[in-house]
Amino acid sequence: MRSRDLVRKEIAELAASRAFWLLLVIVGLLTGQGFITAVNAYAEASGIGGGAAALAQGLSPLDGILTPTLGAYDLAITLLFPFVAIRLVASEKSSDALKLMLQWPSSIGSQIATKVIALIGSWIVSLVPFFIALALWRGYGGHLHAAEVLNLLAGYTLRFLLIASIAMAAAALMSGAANAAIIVLAFTIGTWALDFIAAGRGGIVQTLASFTPTATSRGFERGLLRVDVVLVMLIISLLGFAIAAIWLRLGRSIRTRLAHSAIAVTVAAIATICAMQVRASFDLSKNRRNSFSPSDERALAGISDPLTITVFLSSEDPRMTDFENNVLLKLRRAKRDVRVIYPLAGRSGLFENDARYGEVVYQLGSKSAMSRSTTEEIVLDTIYGLAGVRAPARETSSYPGYPLAKRASGAEMVFYVAWPIVVAVIWFVRRRSLFGTERSAGAA
Amino acid sequence: MSLAVAGLCARRGSRAVLTDVSFTAHPSEILGVIGPNGAGKTTLFECVAAVLPFHGGTVHGEPLFYVPDAIRPWPDQTVRWTLELTARMFDSRLDETLFADLDLVALQHATVGSLSKGEAKRLDIAMGLSVPRPVLLLDEPFDGLDLRQTRQVMSILRRDAAKGRTLVLSIHQLRDAERACDRFLLLDNGRSVAEGTISELTSRAGVSGLEEVFLALT
Predict the structure, then answer these.
(1) pLDDT bucket at A356, cuts 50 / 70 / 90
(2) Using CA atoms, how far apart are residues B59 and B6, in angstroms rounded to an integer?
(3) Which of A75, A107, A77 is nearest to A2 (CA)?
(4) Residue boundaries of the structural domains of chain B
(5) Whole-complex ipTM
(6) Architecture of the domain whose range is A294-387
(7) What angle do CA A348, A352, A354 make, to 5 degrees?
(8) Considering only CB atoms, which residues of chain B are within 8 Å of chain A?
């Protein structure tokens, strides 16, 4: 009963926040802009303008519609939701309501949990424009693959939880909402920097960077569900919420709170290291873009020797990006003991005079081979050659592609006119029902 | 005995703000905590209510509730919402008579953030009274109230204490304290200087009246 009251309280506080209603309006507008642009670009690629349609197999709603439409939420999670989460904690600190709440029979941990539930509720409400976009897309005759949609939503929800936890922890730790906002923005910019620095470097930096919010989103946007990523994001989120609960216990000394924080961080670090060892992943993309063909996967699984690949490419070379995304990612999923070395990590590659630049050296057991190609077929043939395995017959992709030559008709009206009006009306009606007599009360 | 505080010590950084403070409070009693500005009255309340850490001493007694001075909790919510929430958190129902007793009927749909100082103070007192705890700590309950409201609140508090609740009030206006309280704890510079009824304090200080006691002992 009391927990239901706590949830109601948090929902009432969220609904009282103008920032939340503004966020809903902005998310609707941004989602509409992303969706309309995506549908029109997709239509052109499908040949609506009379030009040649792109190869049908290359037209995937995951890349063409879902990801650009959810791009609005990328912005909202990074720049808008942190303020909503910060407000839930900081306003109670600054108004001294926290001193009352600390005396309630409910523990501060359960109060934080109800704040998280309310925030998740706000996230689901904010997704309404995305669901409207999906309905419109289906209405136009577009195709959707449920596993891709759910995986993408799961990825963005995990990212939302992570940022919400950082925001709440910052609000609990810092003396004001502005300071907390600076901490959250610093965290976001820090992860961007890490993501940038780590590209093609290998080692611990690249491993760490693969868990930044931006990097994790890229995986989900490819239809890849990595269990280690899910676990690490959940662990860090829980750590953030735990830190918030620890630092809101004003009755504990700073030393005690520091000790509890250290314990929480240690437990989370151990859990994260364990989670990072989990190799399970699921390719939920309809076109199996994260996997080799089943016959290649079987052949690779049959090779027992560990494989070491040395890539003489700089991190900013486009071939490196292709090699990472189209070959190494699949290879790591198909074969457990793959080690990749990046000797030129950190170099731009623009003025390379190294004779070995562009080489990719494969070592399997005592045998080694060199190739300059980064295409999937040649890489696989090189590995099969080293292993003395007959290359399986190449399978053609069964993915048909889903072209749709239709414009986003009616979407402007829905996102740019109807959505802001609906949000404003709900806000106004709610306000009137709560405070309708305030003016007369004030007059009295 | 409803509340027993013994040897309470608290620091802010390296500065001691409470040193070896001890006192007791009994059922149906109104204990006034008085002392000059900076004596440590609010710190004492916050330590006793466990919303501020203390570094030595003990607090024993029945469950208590503390209402800080001059707070406007949940400023975007209404007065009624705030009072109902407070009562519900303690599995209690809001006593509707509080609205009339504290002149809050006309304000129940006003937002907490829109209240004047005196209105917010009446809300704070109502919040304290709506919590079914045997001991209630109110920090400066008369601050911001006019004479009529002060007398009205005193009578409400007196009525509440008569039902068995222990009230501990921090008061800087000594005339108000003299009228409202049964016993006093005099704090000075973070230490408990004296504790007792007005007659006990006056005989100890060798003066008459609480103001003279205050001047003689602090």
Answers:
(1) confident
(2) 7
(3) A107
(4) 1-63+134-218, 67-132
(5) 0.95
(6) 3-Layer(aba) Sandwich (3.40)
(7) 130
(8) 46, 49-53, 55, 65-68, 71-78, 81, 85-86, 88-91, 106-111, 114, 127
